[in-house]
């Protein structure tokens, strides 16, 4: 166990290198795939498009140099139009996505033609005329067979993160399931005799437990299989037993509180007794007591992340350290698991240096006027590590390196809160 206060970037680097994707895989139905990581390559099994089809509502024509055509077919999406044929001078009324008939040289948008009033038996015009001044490019508005995807090619590669677009693409290929990395199982604890679950009355000296539900909701929204481990009392034996039990059925434990130096802070000792404490304390503000470690079981390793109890310290160390490590377990690369980062200009000054690397809760907004395209950051009023309202009014963390005095216009690295802007 190392007791030196680690720098944030060293800690993040070590976490990303020492946490690697779990090797359990499973087949999952499309609707439940968002955020999951593909475990193997997926092939294109159907050409896209499967057949030449119209990109517009209008007319498939034969004869691009002509200015009028005789309408002989009507082809809607879903019709088997590819078996029909156009002779020179003929056209087919056609709709977006419908197969073009044999002999089609181009599709003309309906806005570009006029037609006579006589109607055929389907209610459509019998002749169409190209409007004056319009020209036709060879093959215009025809989406060609296999122009997007060709059967047999690779559709998606392993270790790609699934988004709603991926799910649509898989459905478009007729897939109902995909083989993905198994969900990472996480047990979330809070710790502290003062904590009461929301909904119950508060006694003297008690406060509501904010952190546990904040972390559970966050992890669930990212697709983790989350177990609520409850609140741990400020006692060593039950804490040790709860960690040992959770390690048997989890890939990770996330807990908050009880990792500082007071005699009621039992989490670190409990971890040392049932597993290994790898690092305690970082040179950061907030979040100095952040701790990580591991508990080995015969068939798997459970990673342990102990967040400082102050709610903002929990939030910041979770986003900046614990979550990137857990994202590695889901199958993401070290680069892909890093917190999202941005550059922005300080719209504030800081004359008093802070020795620790600080993650200031800020509002990140685009500059307007003089330097559009630039972003600037301004700290929110409530900066206490106990003040969750500050994190609610902020949308990013601005990193201020140790000892740095900030001048207006200085460039800072910023991390959007919840990795979204
Ligand atoms: N003598 C020292 N005292 C403290 C130090 C230190 O270096 N020397 N570090 C301070 C820093 S920095 C932090 S951060 C906190 C973190 O301490 P713990 O992780 O042990 O957290 P607790 O003491 O259990 O709680 C701190 C604070 O947060 C409240 N809390 C805890 N859990 C929750 C929860 N789930 N929901 C809402 N609020 C929670 C708790 O009631 C305390 O007010 O230690 C400093 N002390
Ligand atoms: O590090 Mo503590 O998290 O400053 O409040």
UniProtKB/TrEMBL annotation:
It comes from the Bacteria. GO terms for biological process: Mo-molybdopterin cofactor biosynthetic process. CDD domains: MoeA. It catalyses: adenylyl-molybdopterin + molybdate = Mo-molybdopterin + AMP + H(+). Pathway: Cofactor biosynthesis; molybdopterin biosynthesis. Catalyzes the insertion of molybdate into adenylated molybdopterin with the concomitant release of AMP. This is Molybdopterin molybdenumtransferase. It comes from Lampropedia puyangensis.
């Amino acid at each position: 166990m190392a007791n030196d206060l680690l720098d944030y970037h060293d800690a993040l680097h070590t976490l990303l290198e020492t946490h690697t994707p779990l090797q359990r895989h499973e087949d999952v139905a499309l609707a439940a795939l968002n955020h999951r990581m593909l475990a193997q390559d997926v092939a294109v099994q159907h050409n896209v498009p499967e057949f030449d089809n119209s990109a517009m509502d209008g007319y498939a024509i034969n004869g691009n140099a002509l200015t009028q055509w005789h309408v002989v077919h009507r082809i809607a999406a879903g019709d088997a139009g590819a078996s029909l044929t156009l002779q020179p001078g003929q056209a087919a009324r056609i709709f977006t996505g419908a197969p073009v008939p044999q002999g089609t040289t181009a599709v003309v948008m309906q806005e570009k033609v006029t037609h006579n009033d006589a109607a055929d038996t389907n209610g459509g015009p019998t002749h169409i005329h190209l409007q004056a001044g319009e020209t036709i490019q060879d093959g215009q508005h025809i989406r060609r067979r296999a122009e997007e995807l060709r059967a047999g090619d690779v559709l998606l590669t392993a270790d790609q993160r699934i988004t709603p677009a991926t799910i649509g693409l898989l459905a478009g290929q007729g897939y109902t399931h995909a083989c993905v990395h198994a969900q990472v199982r996480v047990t979330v604890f809070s710790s502290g005799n003062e904590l009461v679950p929301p909904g119950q009355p508060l006694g003297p000296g008690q406060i509501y437990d904010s952190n546990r539900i904040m972390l559970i909701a966050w992890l669930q929204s990212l697709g983790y299989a989350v177990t609520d481990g409850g609140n741990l009392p400020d006692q060593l034996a039950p804490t040790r037993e709860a960690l040992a039990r959770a390690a048997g059925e989890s890939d990770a434990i996330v807990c908050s509180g009880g990792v500082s130096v007071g005699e009621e802070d039992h989490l670190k000792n409990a971890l040392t007794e049932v597993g290994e404490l790898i690092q305690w304390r970082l040179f950061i503000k907030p979040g100095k007591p952040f701790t990580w470690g591991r508990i080995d079981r015969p068939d798997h390793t459970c990673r342990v992340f102990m967040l400082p109890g102050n709610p903002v310290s929990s939030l910041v160390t979770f986003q900046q350290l614990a979550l990137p490590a857990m994202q590695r377990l889901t199958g993401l690369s070290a680069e892909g698991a890093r917190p999202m980062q941005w550059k922005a200009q300080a719209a504030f000054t800081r004359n008093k240096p802070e020795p620790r690397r600080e993650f200031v809760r800020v509002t990140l907004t685009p500059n307007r006027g003089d330097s559009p395209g630039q972003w600037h950051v301004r700290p929110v009023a409530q900066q206490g590590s106990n003040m969750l309202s500050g994190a609610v009014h902020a949308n990013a963390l601005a990193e201020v390196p140790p000892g740095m005095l900030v001048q207006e216009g200085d460039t800072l690295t910023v991390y959007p809160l919840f990795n979204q802007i």
